[in-house]
Amino acid sequence: MRNLTLNSQKIFKCALIVYAVIFLAGILCAFIFGVSFDINFSGGTKISYAYTGDLETADIEKTVDGVLEQNFTVTKSTALAGDTQTFEISLIGKDALSAETQEALTTSLEEAFADNGILLYNSNSVSPTIAGTFFAKSLVAILITALLVVVYVGIRFRKIGGVSAAVTALCALVLDILISFFVCVIFRLQIDSNYIAVVLTLLGYSLNDTIVVYDRIRENERLTPDKTIDVIVNDSINAVKARNFVTTLTTFCAVMTIVVVAELFGLTTLRSFAIPMAFGLLSGCVTSLFVASPLWVVWKTRKTKKKA
Question: Which residues make Cβ contacts (< 8 Å) with residue 116, sequence separation at least 6?
Answer without folding.
Answer: 51, 52, 53, 55
